């Protein structure tokens, strides 16, 4: 008997196939999805579904569709797509949606990201727990699934998605750029040719050099997680070998994008956040920009310098999206290379962030390294994980070890110091880990503070 509490996470469903997530489970979740939205007073005449390149995705999506149609909902099956293509469909069509993907997780995993109409997120506190409980009740009952009464229509939305993105950032007039793109055998191999190439839309002044565009949910070349340094090594080498202007790496469901400059050096996501923020503020003066508390202090500084208001949030897309809705923010960025746009229904899209980088680079003559240096002011440690037996005890020990620090606990423990250095220590929700991020004005100070905190955490 399936235990959905093991696979329903804070923001989505994620589990191994078929022991945790299979077509029976997907069908029950599809029915529960429609039931939950209807119980909340939402009209659920039609929903939209898309899925990634994993071998299990089409079958799981079909089962979810059957469950939803058993509750009387009609289904638009968008088929293959990136997660931001599903958000586009939900926003443009005004429909609730479900995306079948496990993002960068290994091949044995799959998952479901669900949203309300207009790409509004569904998380534990906004309906996902209720969907879990309703689906569990359906599974536990052992009753035969309801016969579908709703209809299913297949609809290819790739060109509409690409055309919409091109209305948001005009790349037609930039100088010619050579771009290496590592799709990691994920959905970027499907969306990049449509958005940045000439498959369906007019050609742009871009020469795309593809890497690992073959859709393969077994990820034969490397894990599709560009935040892990080992997964961008191939891209870094290729950018230098081809003499390209920059490199782009997408994760498995292509909702995150990581950037490499012409020298093969990674551009920190915080620098991308600041760069895109200045472009959005130029279009929408005085607007609000959201950043999570692990992004660089350079982000709020640069936002303020460009006349915007920076709002700091907890880590996680549900917090970013909620704050964007509350404040009317035009843009939000995270250290994990998730980028959120008001022009994209407040949802995250790595592709649109990549287009902003291409536009910013192509509108001037200098290399990306010079451009990104304008938005990089501090030395950062990156995220460092420590396995601990007592998360709260170790957090308390760190709290007591730095009496000169200003403390806040918006998300984990943040220590701020008079010299503009800071550190954040957060407990993992799913593993016995503490995650440390440190930033300081110099590499020496960053290393000093990092090592001092780790000595307490790992004592």
Automatic annotation (TrEMBL):
Its cofactor is Mg(2+). Coiled coil: none annotated. Keywords: Isomerase, Magnesium, Metal-binding, Phosphoprotein. This is Phosphomannomutase/phosphoglucomutase. Belongs to the phosphohexose mutase family. The keyword Isomerase applies. It comes from the Bacteria. It comes from Luedemannella flava. The keyword Magnesium applies.
């Amino acid at each position: 008997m399936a235990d959905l509490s093991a696979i329903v996470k804070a923001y989505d469903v994620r589990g191994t196939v078929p022991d945790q997530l299979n077509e029976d489970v997907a069908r029950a979740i599809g029915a529960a999805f429609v039931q939950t939205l209807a119980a909340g007073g939402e009209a659920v005449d039609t929903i939209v579904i898309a899925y990634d390149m994993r071998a299990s995705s089409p079958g799981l999506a079909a089962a979810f569709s059957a469950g939803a149609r058993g509750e009387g909902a009609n289904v638009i099956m968008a088929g293959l797509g990136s997660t931001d293509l599903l958000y586009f469909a939900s926003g443009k069509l005004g429909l609730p949606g479900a995306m079948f993907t496990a993002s960068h997780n290994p091949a044995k995993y799959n998952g479901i990201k669900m949203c309300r109409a207009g790409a509004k997120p569904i998380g534990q506190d906004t309906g996902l727990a209720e969907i879990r409980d309703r689906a569990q009740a359906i599974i536990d009952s052992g009753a035969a699934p309801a016969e579908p009464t709703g209809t299913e229509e297949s609809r290819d939305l790739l060109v509409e998605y690409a055309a919409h993105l091109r209305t948001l950032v005009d790349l037609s007039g930039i100088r010619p750029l050579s771009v290496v793109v590592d799709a990691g055998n994920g959905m970027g191999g499907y969306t990049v040719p449509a958005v940045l190439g000439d498959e369906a839309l007019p050609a742009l002044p871009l020469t795309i050099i593809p890497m690992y565009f073959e859709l393969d949910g077994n990820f034969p070349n490397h894990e599709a997680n560009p935040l892990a340094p080992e997964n961008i090594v191939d891209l870094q080498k290729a950018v230098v070998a081809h003499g390209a202007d920059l490199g782009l790496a997408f994760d498995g469901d292509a909702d995150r994008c990581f950037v490499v400059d012409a020298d093969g050096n990674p551009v920190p996501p915080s620098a991308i956040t600041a760069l895109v923020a200045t472009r959005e503020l130029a279009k929408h003066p005085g607007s609000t920009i959201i950043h999570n508390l692990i992004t660089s202090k350079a982000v709020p500084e640069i936002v303020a310098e460009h006349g915007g208001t920076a709002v700091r949030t907890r880590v996680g897309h549900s917090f970013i999206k909620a704050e964007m809705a509350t404040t009317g923010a035009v843009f939000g960025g995270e250290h994990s290379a998730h980028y959120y746009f008001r022009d994209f229904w407040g949802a995250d899209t790595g592709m649109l962030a990549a287009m902003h980088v291409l536009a910013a680079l192509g509108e001037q003559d200098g290399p990306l390294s010079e451009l990104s240096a304008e938005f990089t002011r501090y030395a950062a440690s990156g995220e460092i994980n420590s396995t601990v037996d007592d998360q709260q005890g170790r957090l308390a020990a760190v709290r007591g070890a730095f009496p000169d620090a200003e403390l806040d606990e918006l998300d984990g423990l943040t220590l701020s110091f008079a010299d503009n250095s800071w550190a954040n220590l957060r407990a993992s929700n799913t593993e016995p880990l503490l995650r440390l991020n440190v930033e300081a004005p110099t590499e020496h100070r960053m290393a000093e503070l990092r090592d001092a905190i780790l000595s307490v955490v790992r004592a």
